[in-house]
Amino acid sequence: MTAQDDTAFKRLGCGRKLTAAASVAASRGPFCRARVRKAADTADLGEFHAWQVDKAREAIELQAVIPSSRTGLYIAVSGDGVTVYLVDAEERSCTCKAAANGRRCYHLAAAPILSAATARRAA
Prior knowledge:
By secondary structure, the protein is an alpha+beta fold.
């Protein structure tokens, strides 16, 4: 295994090296996936539709929404895989078209889930 291959096994979730095929495919180990699921259940998502919460969970699992280096800011990649949006959890804003039109987007639903998951890890 080369150094580049070894880097591919290190993921954003917990930062742990993933070796199991299922964990590599999911981009997270079982503990990190469980933490995100539990955070989604405990985060305040009452303002979002169920389908938005489901889509937010899926985006997190696919690493289409990830934390940035600044607390409260998240980077979201659109379905086309090219367009990138900035989600600000504190301002409750996103740069996607839905949010620009005054609607709540699933990117905003992903932010409190990731915040809760990160808070659990720090605790």
